[in-house]
Amino acid sequence: MPAPSLPPGRPREVRGQDMPDLLRLDQAAFPDDPMRNSTLRQLLDMYADHLLVIEDDDGHLCAYVLATPPYKGESWIFSLGVAPAKRGKGLARTLMTKALETVRAEGASTVRLWVEPTNEPAKALYKSLGFTSDPEGARPDHFGPGAHRLGMTLKL
Fold first, then answer.
1. Which structural domains are found in the chain, ordered by start?
2. Alpha carbon separation from 69 to 7, 40, 61, 121, 129 (Å, rounded)
3. What span, in angstroms and rounded, lies between the C-alpha atoms of 16 and 22?
4. From 126, 136, 143, 152, which residue has the greatest number of CB atoms within 10 Å?
5. Torsions phi, psi of 78, nearest 5?
6. CB of 66 closer than 8 Å to CB of 29
């Protein structure tokens, strides 16, 4: 079986001038619940060194992951977004692998995240990286009415 092709770009830290493109990407990745400009801006300001992006061949952002630095050994994946046209090309795996390497090197022993219980591709990715579903199962309305979430945890 041939090795998978490399993604069109390599992960890099976000830059301030990426903000308009990052907003566009988040809206494309999460059309039903995009982050507000002010929220995304604050997250960029707070976690720029943990907000990794990948550019496409045209220099536009096509994927991002936002992790938190470890606190008391625990880190969180806040968001992982890939432009719809770029899904299935290994970008999410590339970003998650880099984010996990970073937080592990910084001392994280546990990484947690929330995922939509019906998002089978995301759950499959996280499971393939070693995450396990929280034993209590999906939490109804965790992020608001109709916004159910399943917690997943990775022990590093």
1. 12-155 (3.40.630.30)
2. 25, 17, 23, 26, 19
3. 10
4. 126
5. -75, -40
6. no
If we measure between CA atoms, which residue out of 28, 155, 153, 43 comes closest to residue 83? 28
18 secondary structure, DSSP code? G
pLDDT tens-place string over residues 38-89 = 999 999 999 999 999 999 999 999 999 999 999 999 999 999 999 999 999 9
- Across the beta sheet with 61-67, what order do the strands follow? 12-13, 51-55, 61-67, 74-82, 110-115, 150-155, 132-133
Predicted TM-score (pTM) of this structure:
0.91
| Residue that has been written with the tokens 């308009």 in this structure | 20
Contacts 24+ apart (CB under 8 A), 143-148: 143/33, 143/114, 147/33, 148/116, 148/117
Place of tokens 């092709």: 5
